[in-house]
């Protein structure tokens, strides 16, 4: 694995054509108002200029590749900015959104197909469309899709998603779990708690739904990558194990200890703490952690390899996380 390329599985692309498609449509203003309430005015005042400054890296493949070279990254798995989910959209609009997003992401990656691989979108708010959307993404040459931690009124444990999980498992598609927005709403509207607390919470809740509902029992071959190191779940999985062992309601739907499912999932390395990264490797296994940077946003890292090196992992584990694990996934696909 020491000879494998360095692979960053958490990198985003901004798709102006998708935003142009939904501009002015009913529902967009309400969704933006909810996002504003969840984040608060101080966060929005910082985020706007931050994103604008990064637009060249988010949209121009040449600028992206130069930044990758500076970071020592050989390959990026590129996913749309989560702001493109638009889970408020009706069925007709949602189909237009995912088709345009899939095609635009594929076009962006086609500028350097040996270095840029892509993920598309599916409309979780319309479960009946998710299989079709996944197939469309794969048909564009993408490796899978990116999803949020929930859709309005639906958790990832919802039986309506069973055909989607089945199709993702059948095709070997990658599913990148990346939350957008936290349902704790205005409780997190100061000090950017909407992200610093909200994202890890949403990751932990979504993964817990997949574990405790039995989704991972029914689909053991699912290739799911959790952003942000899986949030709070991997470092607090002992509490889940205890509940599963002592309460009939907690253990009713999944067959094994919750901690045992961590070895069936993949996690990116973006935890911002070398001690937490070591614990993630311990709980999930060195073969289940993948390099991630959240390129190019400010809550990511400009030096993902350096952040990984700071964890002081054994050489074999370091190289597995740096690229060996992800390269094996990408090559299989």
Please write the string of helix (H) and strand (E) elements. EHHHHHEHEEHEEEHEHHHEHEHEHH
Give me the secondary-structure category. alpha/beta
Number of domains: 1
Distance between the termini: 18 Å
Number of helices: 15
* CATH fold-level assignment: TIM Barrel
Query: How would you describe the oligomerization state of the chains in this entry?
Result: single chain
Query: What would you give as the CATH superfamily?
Result: Metal-dependent hydrolases
- Reading off the top of the CATH hierarchy, the class is best stated as Alpha Beta
Q: Compute the average pLDDT.
A: 96
Major sheet strand order:
4-5-8-9-10-11
Tell me the radius of gyration: 19 Å
Q: What global shape is seen?
A: globular
Uncertain stretches of 5 or more adjacent residues: none
Pfam families: Amidohydro_2
Protein name: Amidohydrolase
Keywords: Lyase
GO biological process, one term: secondary metabolic process
């Amino acid at each position: 694995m020491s000879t494998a390329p360095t692979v960053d599985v958490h990198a985003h692309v901004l798709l102006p054509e998708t935003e142009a498609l939904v501009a002015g449509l009913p529902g967009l203003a309400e969704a933006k108002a909810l996002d504003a309430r969840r984040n608060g005015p101080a966060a929005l005042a910082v985020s706007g200029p931050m994103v604008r400054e990064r637009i060249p890296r988010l949209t121009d493949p040449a600028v992206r590749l130069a930044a990758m070279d500076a970071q020592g990254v050989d390959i990026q798995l590129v996913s749309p900015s989560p702001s493109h989910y638009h889970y408020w959209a009706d069925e007709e609009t949602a189909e237009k959104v995912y088709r345009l997003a899939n095609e635009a992401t594929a076009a962006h990656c086609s500028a350097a197909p040996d270095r840029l691989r892509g993920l598309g979108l599916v409309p979780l708010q319309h479960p009946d469309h998710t299989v079709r959307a996944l197939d469309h993404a794969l048909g564009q040459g993408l490796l899978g899709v990116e999803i949020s931690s929930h859709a309005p009124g639906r958790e990832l444990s919802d039986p309506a998603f069973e055909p989607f999980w089945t199709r993702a498992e059948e095709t070997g598609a990658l599913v990148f779990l990346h939350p957008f927005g936290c349902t704790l709403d205005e409780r997190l509207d100061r000090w950017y708690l909407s992200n610093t607390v909200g994202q890890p919470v949403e990751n932990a809740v979504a993964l817990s739904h997949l574990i405790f509902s039995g989704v991972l029992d029914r689909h053991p071959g699912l290739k799911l990558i959790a952003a942000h190191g899986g949030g709070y779940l991997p470092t607090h999985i002992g509490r889940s194990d205890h509940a599963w062992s002592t309460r009939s309601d907690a253990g009713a739907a999944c067959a094994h200890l919750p901690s045992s499912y961590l070895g069936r999932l993949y996690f990116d390395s973006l935890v911002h703490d070398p001690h937490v990264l070591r614990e993630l490797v311990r709980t999930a296994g060195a073969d289940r952690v993948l390099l991630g940077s959240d390129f190019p946003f400010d809550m990511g890292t400009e030096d993902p390899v350096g952040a990984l090196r700071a964890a002081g992992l054994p050489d074999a584990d370091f190289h597995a996380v740096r690229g060996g694990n992800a390269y094996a996934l990408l090559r299989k696909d």
